[in-house]
Amino acid sequence: MKEYWTSLASLLGVLAFFQTLMNTVLPPELRYASLKLINRFFNLFSSFCYFDITEIDGVNTNELYNAVQLYLSSSVSSNRLSLTRAVNSSSVTFGLSSNDSISDTFHSATVLWEHVVTQRQNQTFAWRPMPEEKRGFTLRIKKKDKSLILGSYLDHIVERAEEIRRRNQDRLLYTNSRGGGGGMDGRGLPWESVPFKHPSTFETLAMDPEKKREIMEDLKDFAECQSFYKRTGRAWKRGYLLYGPPGTGKSSMIAAMANYLGYDIYDLELTEVKSNSELRKLLMKTSSKSIIVIEDIDCSINLTNRSKKFNEPLTGSGLGGDESGNGNTITLSGLLNFTDGLWSCCGSERIFVFTTNHIEKLDPALLRSGRMDMHVYMSYCTFPSLKILLRNYLGYEEGDLSDGVLKELEGVVEKAEITPADVSEVLIKNRREKERAVRELLEELRRRAERNEKKGKLRGGNGSLTVADDVEEQEKRALDSPYAEEEEEIEDSICKISED
Asked: Residue 206 pLDDT more than 90?
């Protein structure tokens, strides 16, 4: 045994001598070329090829590295993991630890990912200091799968990483900046944001279940049909008009839409926008997968001048002119181009939502399909929506209330014409005493129903309009304006005035 160790030590000494001799005799360039030639020789007989994805590409961050890291976090099964939590993220993600590896399968092709972390050599002076560690992923694939992996697989990784990033990231609520300098804040950004944590969902929304199901299906169909919009030559956007009395849940509907799709919200305050060009700049700075909201559009700026005679001159700054003298020069033409013109195609997968309490005050040009594709009437509280509120605030499920109470509620809620907000207030005050809450709600409904009967406001009696008929009548009055037939001519005149 002693002779064995002696022979091994002698061999190692000889190898060390030859290594020192080669380093002394052969220049570094020649040694590097020799090693490269040897590796290339062995690669000829290998069935695998390797690709490196570094964290830093020159001086810029490699987005593909971040995408791979997120993608692997959804399928990591190693015993040693690294945990991270990004900015504006509500969840913790995990990934490969240093110098760990994992296999993945895509369309029957097996690949191997290795996370390589090495210490970076001492840096010289640089305008942008580099991290102390050099990180990257090495992808090992079979040569026969090269065309498949470098095409479809990498695209799949990027798409999957974007889904994970959006799911993990907190949604944001934006508003246009109120600072000077053309609507920019102190940092030159047109939008300010805060985390969006509104809890409203379609499950808790007090609305007719059938109508909610219709809206949810429409939203899902929009989000999943990018190929359809591309094939038909349409911009990937959709418009919703929410109208109805105050307190019927229009803002809650917007929050439920954002939570359902996972979109950010841009709350556009038109009174802070001074011109059409500034409106376009705001649109250009919005992101994809977002909802652009203009609430109470009939109260934001003057957009109702179309009711004047066509031959009367349009004074001031056009249809959107601000009579208060604060310099607002938004025109109806600018708002129409914002929602349906060429500038509305800047970006994709965006939803425009307008809200109003008086649809009849809006110009017909704002209501047509292509601008506001779906009109949603937010009505007074109905019996199905009342049951949703009782479940939300009191925990009552189907069958918890007696048939007599349910029948009485059903008979009086339509006549009371009460908003979901008013019902919620009654239930919140008495949420710790359920029976008292139901009793006071019944009293409030009876009181309102009697008041409406005395004032002759009750719908459906003496030949008056039902709720459905009234909704149709409101839309008809808004769309069938006496000047609707001259819409194209008037829009042309608006454009000419705006140019002047």
From this structure: yes
Query: Are 73 and 113 within 8 A, CB to CB?
Result: no
How do residues 270-300 score in pLDDT, each as one tens digit?
Answer: 888 888 888 888 888 888 889 999 999 888 7
Q: What is the pLDDT of residue 241?
A: 95
CA distances from 332 to 298, 320, 491 (A): 12, 6, 9
SS3 137: strand
Which residues are paired to 242 by β-bridges?
355, 376
Instruction: Give the ranges where 74-208 is alpha helix by DSSP (H).
Output: 146-148, 154-168, 180-183
Helix/strand/coil for 452: helix
**Beta strands 237-243 and 350-356, pairing class:** parallel
Which residues are 119's β-sheet partners? 133
In the numeric block, which tokens belong to residue 344?
Answer: 């509305």
Report the chain's C-alpha Rg in angstroms.
33
Of all helices (H) and strands (E), which one includes residue 432?
none
Nearest to 222 by CA among 295, 290, 158: 290
- Any residues with CB less than 8 A from the CB of 194 and at least 6 apart, and which? 172, 173
Task: For residue 208, give the 3-state DSSP assignment.
Answer: coil
The tokens for 168 are: 């993990």
Model confidence pLDDT, tens digit, residues 94-144: 566 677 788 888 888 888 888 888 876 665 555 455 566 788 889 988 888
Query: Tokens at residue 1, please?
Result: 């045994």
Residue type, 100: D
Question: Would you state the pLDDT for residue 37?
Answer: 78
Which residues face 353 on adjacent strands? Answer: 240, 293
The token pair at 492 is: 């042309």
Q: 375-395 pLDDT, tens per residue? A: 999 999 999 999 999 999 999
Give buried/exposed letters for 42-56 (b at 16+ CB in 10 A, else e). Answer: eeeeeeeeeeebebb
Structure tokens at 70: 């997120």
| Global pTM value | 0.68
Rounded to an integer, what distance in angstroms lies between the CA atom of residue 167 and that of residue 93? Answer: 11
Q: Which amino acid is at 311?
A: N
> Percent of the chain beyond pLDDT 90?
28
The C-alpha angle with vertex 244 and arms to 369 and 430, in degrees rounded to 5, equals: 140
Q: How far are the Cα atoms of 51, 163, 496 from residue 348, in angstroms, in the given order?
A: 32, 16, 29
* C-alpha triplet 57, 59, 63: angle, nearest 5°: 45
Q: How far apart are CA 104 and CA 77, in angstroms?
A: 11
Q: Cβ(254)–Cβ(291) under 8 Å?
A: yes
Tokens found for residue 28: 């570094």
Contact 134, 98 (CB under 8 A): no
d(CA 359, CA 480): 12
Burial of 119 (0-12, 13-18, 19+ CB in 10 A): exposed
